[in-house]
Design a protein that fits this description.
Length: about 300
């Protein structure tokens, strides 16, 4: 904040000097009106414009590695910057930052009053590089199965909770992770209006619905080709070519788990029964007795 105030005051002094020299012929009332307008535009409108155009990064935040984001982690817009700037006049400029400091110390998330009313949060953008988690892909036999779900009623907070669970489920206790997945899957099914299919693990269901949302966003942003690519990203590749659920002996996407899925009994395929090893006994297809890929196994 000190860096931002120093930059704003430097601009304010420079603009004031230019106005004084160029409006010396005006009367006192006009000069007073220009002074007030300059103060409001530079010290209030300037930070609002900078945060809006830079998506939450002012000069001081850029130097300290900070950024203003929404509560759900998305970029702020003009209305968020406007509320922060207007309330900042009271809690920062008029009280020399005392109110803002007290509010930040009292808040559990370090938010001042402008952040509370605007629904924003200041986060650290520049942190030490660490190994971050990733959202695992869903099982191939679930790809495209939830294309008919209505995801418009799912709030951003629930999406954020699902993504955080999927990226960290390997670090959780198995029983705790399973109960969390069941709770999130139940909340997601309640919002979409469709129950979780029987036989589908809750973690696999969450991953498949998240992939469906990503595919829809890709179609809106880049067209149908990007959406199809995002949907088919979880299809496994065997010997250099993609294998569809039908080719693996399973049912088409959207019609239940294929043969070989968890909880479904399966035997050797026609190709495996017809292929024999060099010794003459029946064996799996592929070089040197290599087993063909069986697809993704959803985590417990």
């Amino acid at each position: 904040m000190l860096l931002d105030l120093v930059a704003a005051m430097a601009v304010y002094v420079a603009v004031t000097i230019v106005l004084v020299t160029s409006t010396a012929s005006l009367d006192e009332a006009a000069q007073t009106a220009l002074s007030i307008a300059t103060f409001v535009l530079v010290l209030v409108g300037g930070p609002i414009a900078v945060e809006t155009l830079s998506h939450g990064r002012s000069l001081g935040k850029l130097a300290c590695g900070l950024r203003v984001v929404r509560d759900d982690g998305g970029p702020i817009r003009f209305r968020h910057a406007l509320v922060r700037g207007l309330i900042g006049v009271i809690e920062i400029l008029m009280t020399f930052g005392i109110v803002a400091c007290i509010a930040s110390f009292v808040s559990a998330r370090g938010r001042r009053l402008g952040d509370v009313f605007a629904g924003t949060l200041v986060v650290r953008e520049r942190i030490p590089v660490t190994r971050t988690g990733f959202v695992p892909p869903p099982p191939p036999w679930l790809a495209g199965r939830f294309s008919g779900l209505d995801l418009s009623a799912v709030p951003d907070g629930l999406w954020l909770a699902v993504r955080q669970y999927l990226t960290r489920m390997q670090q959780l206790d198995p029983q705790v992770g399973w109960s969390m997945a069941e709770r999130l899957a139940s909340d997601l099914a309640e919002r979409t209006g469709a129950p979780v299919p029987q036989g589908v693990p809750p973690a696999a269901y969450l991953a498949a619905v998240v992939q469906e949302r990503q595919a829809r966003e890709a179609r809106r942003a880049f067209g149908d080709d990007a959406g199809r690519a995002a949907t088919s990203a979880a299809v496994p590749v065997t010997h250099g070519r993609a294998v569809s659920p039908e080719a693996r002996g399973g049912t088409p996407a959207g019609h239940g788990p294929p043969v070989g899925a968890p909880g479904v009994a399966s035997g050797p395929s026609v190709e495996e029964r017809r292929t024999e090893s060099p010794a003459g006994s029946a064996g799996p297809a592929g070089p040197a007795g290599e087993r063909p890929g069986t697809g993704f196994v959803p985590p417990a």
